């Protein structure tokens, strides 16, 4: 068997998240909608679940359809999922 060659690119993960965020902002390949108060945000379930134990648990239990975030005493950020793609 031929030897396995491993390649590593330190910038790959950053580039991947940038591209996923650009797709999300264009509404491409989004498979869930997050609702914070009355505002809807398209998102990718896999990025949410990989970035947050809360989303991983909720998305594992939820059926199809939008995901309404619980109300908080302070207003949510403009896009509560945006930090997950950066």
From TrEMBL:
A Pfam family matched in the record: BTB
Major subcellular location class: nucleus
Tagged with keyword Ubl conjugation: no
Keywords, comma-separated and alphabetical: Metal-binding, Nucleus, Repeat, Zinc, Zinc-finger
Keyword match Zinc: yes
Entry superkingdom: Eukaryota
Ranges of residues in domain BTB: 30-62
Gene3D superfamilies named among the record's database cross-references: Potassium Channel Kv1.1, Chain A (3.30.710.10)
Entry protein name: BTB domain-containing protein
């Amino acid at each position: 068997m031929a030897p396995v060659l491993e390649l590593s690119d330190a910038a790959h993960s950053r580039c991947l998240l940038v591209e996923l965020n650009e797709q999300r902002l264009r509404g491409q390949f989004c498979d869930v909608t997050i609702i914070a108060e009355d505002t809807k945000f398209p998102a990718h379930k896999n990025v949410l679940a990989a970035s947050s134990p809360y989303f991983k648990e909720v998305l594992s239990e939820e059926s199809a359809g939008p995901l309404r975030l619980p109300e908080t005493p302070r207003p949510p950020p403009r896009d509560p999922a945006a930090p997950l793609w950066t």
